[in-house]
Structure formats: structure tokens, C-alpha cells
From TrEMBL:
Residues 1-253 form the EAL domain. The keyword Transmembrane helix applies. The chain holds residues 260 to 512 of 515 of the full protein. The keyword Glycosyltransferase does not apply. It comes from the Bacteria. This is EAL domain-containing protein. Keywords: Coiled coil, Membrane, Transmembrane, Transmembrane helix.
Length: 253
């Protein structure tokens, strides 16, 4: 676990990096987007993962400048990749404090303007828990960003407490089925039913569904048969540095 002053230094010294994990369209088996995932390239300790510093960043408020850096870096990368692959999407995670920040809408607008991305290719991920904390605020913030073309995904779906009543009111575009359901799906028929139910629910609410943590072809076949739209997981790629990520796009032409 890292300290506040170390995190501040990391920002000043530009030690954060983004890794990118491919998101596949299950019907075409092509990469249709990437999720940006932060890492800290520490000069002596090596690569540090977000679970070891995001909560401290959140508690200390440093998540605000770190989050600005993430959004700007991910959108700069998106702009570059979309020159050759115009439909490609970029998903960026938002923590609770970032989502509640009064300047979020302005930040996103500024970054879109500065980088020149197509806002339709930007997806912001929030968890159910964040979304439901103050539902009226959530709805109005998502609507404001939707108006300029940015879409939202509900991350870790199925692990929080969203009731159907809340879900139908949230103007999100995608549900991300939590990895925990995938982990045991091939042994546990209950998990299969849960996943199929989430997919049906999503379709009825006009939402896209993406499954996270896909590691085997069996899981992929099950998801395809269940008409899940997209998949993300080690089967396709781990989160990788930008040079490797682009090679996936180049390979598929
Ligand atoms: O990449 P990894 O699986 O180690 O990520 C662990 C957690 O850190 C995930 O819950 C992910 O959402 C979160 N995370 C990764 N990158 C970012 C980021 O840029 N911003 C925020 N707020 N959370 C992130
Ligand atoms: O909470 P969020 O969904 O943003 O976090 C995604 C995290 O899940 C990333 O840290 C990523 O490294 C991890 N991840 C992505 N795909 C897989 C997978 O197929 N298997 C495992 N074990 N972890 C994965
Ligand atoms: Mn995520
Ligand atoms: Na997730």
C-alpha cells in the first residue's frame, strides 16, 4: 500500500501508465474497443497495480488529478488509433469521487475538445454502487454527458444492489457482467442462468452486454449462444501497453 506523498510524487514524475485490454465483438470476433487500466511504473518497485493505490488516491482526493491524467491519456490514445480504426471505442473507469466531482462534465468536454476524439467512441464505467448512491444526481450527470455523445457502462454488474426499478431509470448503455459469474460458469448451472438472465434483462432494456473475465473457449461459446454482445478477458488479451494493444488491431486488418 502506497502513501499519499509517494502518489503525489508519482504524478509529478509522470510514473503512471495506461494498459489497454481488448474488448471483442462476439459475433465478428473482432476487437471493437479497449478498456484503459492504470498502472504505476515505480522506479524501484516495478509495476504497481491499481488495487494497491486507487483507494488511497480516492481517500486523499488525489484521484481527481490522477483521473484527469487517465482521461486525457486514454483520449489522446483513442484519437491516434481512430485515425486508422475509426470505429474503435475506449472505456475509462471512474471512481466514486471522480463521478461526484462537480467539474466532471466540464473535464470530459474539455478533454474531448482538446484531443479531438469522437465522443461517441468514449465510454465511462461506473459501478452499480456508485450509480445508486444518489440516483437523481447520477441520472442528470449521465444525461448531460449523453447529450454530447458519451456513453456509460455499469461495471461489475450483478455484485451490487441495483433493483430493477433503479436500473430502468439509469440512462446507461452497457452492462458489464462481473467476472465472478464467469469464473464458475462452466461448473455452476446457477451462474449460467444468472448470466442468461442478465443478458435477457439487458436486451429488454435496450442495453448492450459485455462479459468480463472470459478465459476459455467454453465460456466464449456459452456467451455466444446466450447472445451476449461483447467479451473481455485473458482469452483474448491481458491488459497490455499501447504498443502491444495496437498490434491486435493491425493483425486483424
Ligand atoms: O487492472 P486491474 O484489474 O488490476 O484493476 C483493478 C481495479 O482498478 C478495477 O476495479 C479497475 O476498475 C480499477 N481501475 C483500473 N484503472 C483505473 C482508473 O484509471 N481509474 C479508476 N478510478 N479505477 C481504475
Ligand atoms: O473492475 P474492473 O472491471 O474495472 O477491473 C477489470 C480488472 O479485471 C482488471 O484489473 C483486469 O486486469 C482484470 N481482468 C480482466 N480480464 C481478466 C480475466 O480474464 N481474468 C482475470 N483473472 N482477471 C481479468
Ligand atoms: Mn472496468
Ligand atoms: Na468490472
Amino acid at each position: 500500500i502506497e502513501t499519499q506523498s509517494e502518489l503525489r510524487k508519482a504524478l509529478e514524475r509522470d510514473e503512471f501508465v495506461l494498459y489497454y485490454q481488448a474488448q471483442m465483438d462476439l459475433s465478428t470476433k473482432k476487437v471493437v474497443g479497449f478498456e484503459a487500466l492504470i498502472r504505476w511504473q515505480h522506479p524501484t518497485k516495478g509495476l504497481i497495480y491499481p488495487n494497491d493505490f486507487i483507494s488511497i488516491a480516492e481517500e486523499t482526493g488525489l484521484i481527481i488529478p490522477i483521473g484527469q491524467w487517465v482521461l486525457k491519456t486514454a483520449c489522446t490514445q483513442l484519437k491516434q488509433w481512430s485515425e486508422d480504426y475509426p470505429g474503435i471505442n475506449m472505456a475509462v473507469n471512474l471512481s466514486a469521487r471522480q463521478f461526484k466531482d462537480k467539474d466532471l462534465v466540464k473535464l470530459v468536454c474539455d478533454v474531448i475538445h482538446e484531443t479531438g476524439i469522437n465522443p461517441n467512441n468514449l465510454e465511462l464505467e461506473i459501478t452499480e454502487t456508485i450509480a445508486l448512491d444518489d440516483i437523481e444526481y447520477t441520472i442528470s450527470t449521465i444525461k448531460e454527458l449523453r447529450m454530447i455523445g458519451v456513453s456509460f457502462s455499469l461495471d461489475d454488474f450483478g455484485t451490487g444492489y441495483s433493483s430493477m426499478n433503479y436500473l430502468k431509470r439509469l440512462p446507461v448503455s452497457n452492462l458489464k457482467i462481473d467476472k465472478s459469474f464467469l469464473d464458475t460458469v462452466m461448473e455452476d448451472s446457477c451462474d449460467q442462468k444468472i448470466i442468461q438472465t442478465i443478458i435477457t434483462l439487458a436486451r429488454n432494456l435496450n442495453l448492450y452486454v459485455i462479459a468480463e473475465g472470459v478465459e476459455s473457449f467454453d465460456q466464449e461459446s456459452f456467451l455466444k449462444e446466450s447472445q451476449c454482445n461483447k467479451a473481455q478477458g485473458y482469452l483474448y488479451s491481458k491488459p497490455v501497453p499501447k504498443e502491444l494493444a495496437i498490434s491486435f488491431l493491425e493483425k486483424q486488418g
